[in-house]
Design a protein that fits this description.
Order of helices and strands: HHHHHEHHHEEEHHHH
Radius of gyration: 27 Å
Strand order of the largest sheet: 1-2-3-4
Distance between the termini: 59 Å
Number of helices: 12
Number of domains: 3
Oligomer: single chain
Shape: globular
Helix content: 40-55%
Largest sheet: 4 strands, antiparallel
Structural class: alpha+beta
Length: about 375
Amino acid sequence: MYVAVKGGEKAIDNAHAWLAEERRGDTSVAELSVAQIREQLSLAVNRVMTEGSLFDPDLAALAIKQSRGDLIEAVFLIRAYRTTLPRFGATLPVDTGGMACDRRISATFKDAPGGQVLGPTFDYTHRLLDFKLAAEGEVVPVETGAPRCGPTPHITEFLQGEDIIQREPESDAVPGDLTREPMEFPSNRALRLQSLTRGDEGFILGMAYSTQRGYARNHAFVGELRIGKVPVEMEIPELGFAIEIGELELTECETVNQFQGSKTEPPQFTRGYGLVFGQSERKSIAMALVDRALRWKELGEDNLGAAAQDEEFVLSHSDNIQATGFLEHIKLPHYVDFQSELELVRKLRREAEERLKGEFTAQEAAE
């Protein structure tokens, strides 16, 4: 047994060395720096920060480099590192109404108060490969204009003025922290939103798509999608007031959903909500659609049996780290388990063969 353990340890060390060599690739090609990944693969960096629950572009870029571009592995690295960090306080809730927006659009109001800001987006590109990007040389920057400054009111506030959109309940209760406490069912909306933010983008997208195809009766409009930076403030007990300690880039989405009313609520519009780190429009919209689908009980709606309405199904299967761990553990040694399964199948086959042989003998005797 000692020899087997030592041999396995050597094999693992060799596998790690080979992995490092594969990660580096052809040494005649310049190595990617963390700064290059952070600046030029920013959407991947944003996803890793969001699903890793840690806003640090440099660490996310390092994780992407270390994981050879496997974003789920990068999220795993970030979450593992996050658990080692001390927690010395909590910031105040950010005010997205004070966001300096680089992008702010609405699919519900053409002439939105404050105007529409297209910002950096793939929406109007032709989805054709740009071979100029494969050529050598620097890209000449163009003048794009500065982001909007100053408070930008949320568009749904204007619907709220007409009292035709559900008002979100206000509460001074401190929401639970999913990074420190396990999820319990039934959950509440604050924890559901945290779980959806950390959830795998592909899974949340699939759930959101199912709601649009009729599996939850969830017809939604994008009331507002905004991307920009918000200040982060923290109260300092010694000072007696809050000070700004930095800023975060966020993507926020509010959907407006038709609601025909229920036994407890009048006909009105309702909302879905999504908030993620960096620029991540697809994730924030998908999150808002799934959030709205999961609100059926509090709105007094019927449960249509859709997967996106099943809180336990959605939240228990959205975390890609848990899913990856459970999926990939089956490639690890299961020799004892398989041998017992193998012996069971052999035994069942012998019993079946003996039973068939006995039936065949009895049939011969009868003839």
